[in-house]
Amino acid sequence: MKGARGVATRDAGGIIQNAVSGVAAGAHVTGASSPDTQAANERDTVRRVALGSDHGGFDAKEKIKAFLKTIGYHVTDVGAFNKDAVDYPDLALKVAKKVASGECDRGIMIDGAGIGSCMACNKVKGIRAAMCYNVKTVVNSREHNNANVLTLGGPLHSDEELYQMTKVWLETRFAGGRHWPRVNKIMAIERG
Asked: Residue 173 is part of a domain; what is its CATH number?
């Protein structure tokens, strides 16, 4: 079957089965490769995910929520809870606050393009939100930037792409090493 962008898609059950067995097509999940990096990343086990969307990302959010629960994540849905028009900054703020407070390990926010939600999330102290559009940017956001919120344009991706990107993002660890000073500089900016 072909998705909206002409990308071959499979039913959710097939995607979920592939993701659970770790054979999602093209998935590149990296882990720590050196003992020093491994020790720094032992705490990077994600279990609690804040999930939000505006009305434009509602359908994608609902699919991602079901998928993440199937593969073992505890999902805190902050809304939207239907397709009635809402303002994405309000939901992005809820996702970001759940992560910044420590109530959730990471957050995912979905709107029409992912851009506005990323801007809103990044206004919250302690948040490093990344708007990603493929697996390569997802991996980079985690390995290099230690992103703790992922923003996506739900309608821009097939179901399979959404499942793959969220799974890879949640499983990819921060590489540390040469990236630490750069992330520290990002965080220093918000301290003034």
From this structure: 3.40.1400.10
Are residues 153 and 15 in contact, defined by beta-carbon separation less than 8 angstroms?
Answer: no
- Is the peptide bond prior to 50 cis by the omega test (within 30 degrees of 0)? no
| 3: three-class secondary structure by DSSP | coil
Buried b (16+ CB within 10 A) or exposed e, 66-102: ebbebeebebbbbbbeeeeebebbebbbbbbbbbbee
* CB 32 within 8 Å of CB 185: no
Burial of 14 (0-12, 13-18, 19+ CB in 10 A): exposed
Residue 118's H or E segment, with its range, is helix 115-121
Reference 40, options 164, 184, 174; nearest CA is 174
How many degrees, rounded to 5, is the angle at CA 107 between CA 104 and CA 113? 165
- This prediction has a pTM of 0.80
Torsion of CA 182, 137, 20, 75, to 10 degrees: 70
Model pLDDT for residues 113-159, shown as the tens digit of each residue: 999 999 999 999 999 999 999 999 999 999 999 999 999 999 999 99
- As a whole number of angstroms, the distance between CA 64 and CA 115 comes to 19
User: Which residue range is the domain that position 110 belongs to?
Assistant: 46-191
Structural domains of the chain, count: 1
